[in-house]
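Appendix B. One record, verbatim.
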Amino acid sequence: MTSNNEVLGGFWDFTSDLSSKDTAYTSLALNAHTDTSYFSEPAGLQMFHLLSHEEGTGGVSLLVDGFRAASILSVEDPGAYRTLTEVKIPTHASGNEGISIQPYAPFPVLNHHPVTGSLTQVRWNNDDRATMDHWENLQQLEEWYEAARKWTKVLRRGTSEYWEQLRPGKPLSQYPSVEESYLRESYN
């Protein structure tokens, strides 16, 4: 197993000071998403560790089993599943002046092994999706948006959710590019 450093090194420390123009640097609630979908190789294992939250409220974290959600979608709407498997969408991180991080190519939301066909990766971050304005096939674009709406409904079902309040000394880990999506409640 290899270990890849993130864009900011092995550890990525942040606080809600908007030092980077990214929703992670705010106290806003975040919808379920996978981090670093704008990398060619998104982050593997991630660990969230709260150092301090004195007199604060909120900030409950949510993990969603993306593989389970994909399985549900494949049964309930095979066409939407196929669309999220086939249509490659552009992603980027470009909040700071002079910085635009993009993968070498667009990827679909649901990625499968080229030989076995098994689901290997979920890449879902609606906040990091780039403009989808270069489509020749507008029908395909409409199908993608409809599939994305259905996917979002599946992700928001309580049966796939695991909620956890972060506390100092109690880290929460996830494999966002492999199985899970992460969400954070707003906090102060």
